[in-house]
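(rape) hypothetical protein
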Amino acid sequence: WNRDRVRQFIHEDDVEMVLQTKLSFSREDVMVWSFSANGSYNTRSPRDCLVLNNLRALLHTAGNYHITYVHHSLNRVASEIAASVTRDLRLQSYVASGGPCWLMALINLEAAANGLSSATD
């Protein structure tokens, strides 16, 4: 650590905690907090910034990709699948093998709510 820089940028109450954090030389540094689109510094969700930066790094190795943020309330299907996978510890892709019984009904309900034809039409 560059102790002078840490003391320059980190609140004095947190300096020792930062200095005790082990450095990793096997991974590239990433910005945990970033500026928002309007240039303001946003600390509302630093964990989200870290997750997105890690995701971008992984996707970069895969080639072309596109990320679109959709609020969970607008995509209940994805939210419910994610919740059931984590809640029920479903480590294999049960969606690819037909999915749970409630999935098709939810897909059709969401399609109808968005003016789309159902998945069974």
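thats it. The chain has a mean pLDDT of 74. The helical segments are 3-9, 15-20, 46-62, 76-87, 101-113. bye
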